[in-house]
């Protein structure tokens, strides 16, 4: 390309830091590879052949594209341009998504985020199909899948939430059982104390919308199993209360980030992971009063 710009072997060689003979050999090698003469050289100087002009036009476009690609990749690494797709279970999204995404948008306004809020049963096939880069949810059997990498982000305190005036608030020996409200199948009963298992042995109702779950909790005797974060406004108004179940240190719901085991993690994924961990620490310590 240098020779096409200068049409002078001496100046082109100087620009490239080569000897004139080395430049000549390089040009000849390219011409042999192409099967066409690219430059004519006579007493009048150096000129492009018709094939050479076509070659330079195409090469210029390719080099410009390569420069653009390099710039794009650099901007992607710095989170200045690009896109990431990820998923969250409803509870995690309710607790973490707004603050984490707000900070991400402020820090990298040109970066694009695509978020799917689904149950773990829906997010798992999306991850394996490559539709999302990772997802965050309660711990599940996916941790045993060799194709999936599971990494703990933290844990939410797990609560049994009921309407104000519910019988179980004052009598844990209440016969029960009561209907159970859930946002998904994963990470629900494993970490609860054994003495309250009977209370939540009734039929399960899965609704992937915490606004609806909060209304059902207020309107029925059903027990909502979730983090208190899910119904923070209702608890603040005294409409929903937490059943006292004892040592909360043992009543937690591990929150995991799931990725494909063989897929490398991008700078964007690592950055979001750090932000999610920080947000998890804040939420776990900030329980509604």
UniProtKB/TrEMBL annotation:
Signal peptide start-end: none
GO MF, one annotated term: DNA-binding transcription factor activity
Domain HTH lysR-type residues, every copy: 1-49
InterPro entries xref list: HTH-type_LysR_regulators, LysR_HTH_N, LysR_subst-bd, WH-like_DNA-bd_sf, WH_DNA-bd_sf
Coiled coil regions in record: none
Listed Pfam families: HTH_1 (PF00126), LysR_substrate (PF03466)
SUPFAM superfamilies named in the record: Periplasmic binding protein-like II, Winged helix' DNA-binding domain
Keyword DNA-binding: yes
Gene Ontology, cellular component aspect: cytosol
Record key words, sorted: DNA-binding, Transcription, Transcription regulation
Family: Belongs to the LysR transcriptional regulatory family.
PANTHER family documented for this protein: HTH-TYPE TRANSCRIPTIONAL REGULATOR YBHD (PTHR30419), NITROGEN ASSIMILATION TRANSCRIPTIONAL ACTIVATOR-RELATED (PTHR30419:SF8)
Protein name as annotated: DNA-binding transcriptional LysR family regulator
Organism: Novosphingobium chloroacetimidivorans
The organism's taxonomic lineage, starting at the top: Bacteria, Pseudomonadati, Pseudomonadota, Alphaproteobacteria, Sphingomonadales
């Amino acid at each position: 390309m240098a020779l096409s710009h200068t049409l002078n072997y001496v100046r082109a060689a100087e620009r490239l830091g080569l000897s004139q003979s080395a430049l000549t050999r390089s040009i000849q090698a390219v011409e042999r590879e192409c099967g066409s003469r690219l430059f004519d050289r006579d007493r009048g100087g150096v000129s492009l052949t018709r094939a050479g002009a076509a070659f330079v036009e195409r090469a210029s476009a390719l080099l410009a594209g390569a420069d653009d690609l390099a710039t794009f990749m650099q901007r992607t690494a710095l989170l200045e341009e690009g896109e990431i797709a990820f998923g969250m279970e409803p509870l995690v999204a309710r607790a973490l998504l707004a603050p984490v995404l707000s900070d991400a948008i402020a820090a990298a306004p040109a970066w694009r985020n695509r978020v799917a809020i689904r149950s773990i049963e829906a997010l798992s096939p999306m991850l394996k199909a490559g539709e999302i880069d990772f997802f965050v949810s309660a711990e599940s059997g996916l941790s045993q899948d060799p194709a999936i990498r599971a990494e703990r982000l933290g844990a939410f305190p797990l609560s049994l939430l009921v309407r104000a005036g519910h019988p179980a608030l004052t009598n844990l020996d209440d016969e029960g059982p009561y209907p159970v409200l859930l946002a998904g199948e994963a990470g629900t009963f494993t970490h609860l104390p054994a003495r309250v298992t009977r209370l939540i042995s009734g039929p399960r109702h899965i609704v992937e919308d915490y606004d609806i779950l909060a209304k059902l909790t207020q309107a029925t005797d059903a027990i909502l199993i979730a983090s208190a974060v899910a119904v923070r406004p209702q608890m603040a108004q005294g409409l929903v209360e937490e059943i006292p179940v004892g040592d909360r240190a043992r009543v937690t719901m591990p929150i995991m980030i799931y990725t494909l085991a063989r897929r490398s993690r991008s700078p964007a994924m690592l950055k979001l992971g750090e932000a999610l961990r920080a947000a998890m620490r804040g939420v776990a310590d900030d329980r509604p009063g």
